[in-house]
Amino acid sequence: MSTGDPILVALQKLEANLFERVGAEMGRQLDGFRLDMNARFDAIEVRLERLETEYHMIVAALLNPRAPSAGPRAAPAEAPAAWARGASAPPRS
Question: End-to-end CA distance of the chain, in Å?
Fold first, then answer.
C-alpha cells in the first residue's frame, strides 16, 4: 500500500478522531471522579474536626468535675446505679 491510499488515510483519520473522543470522555469522567473523591475527603475532615472538638470537650469536663451539669436534661444521681443493675438508659437527646 502506498501512503496515498484513500482507505489508509481514512483509517488514520478515524483512529485519530477516536482517540480524541475517547480521551475527552475519559477526562470528563476522571474530573467527575476527582470532584466526588474531594467531596468525600472534605466530609471526612468535617467529621474528624467534630470528633476532635467533642474529645476536647469531654477531656475538659473530666478534668473539671465541679463544673455545672449539662442542664435540665442531666441524669439524676441514682441513674448510674440503676444502669449498673441492668435498667435501660434514658434516650439520648
Answer: 81
Listed in sequence order, the residues at least 6 apart from 67 whose beta carbon sits closer than 8 Å to its beta carbon are 61
pTM over 0.85: no
Place of cell 463544673: 67
More confident position, 46 or 88: 46
Alpha helices in the chain (DSSP H): 6-63, 79-84
| pLDDT for the residue numbered 24 | 86
pLDDT at position 1: 45
What separation in angstroms does the CA of 89 have from each of 34, 50, 54, 58, 68?
Answer: 44, 25, 21, 19, 21
Contact status, residue 79 vs residue 90, Cβ threshold 8 Å: yes
Rounded CA separation 51/60 (Å):
14
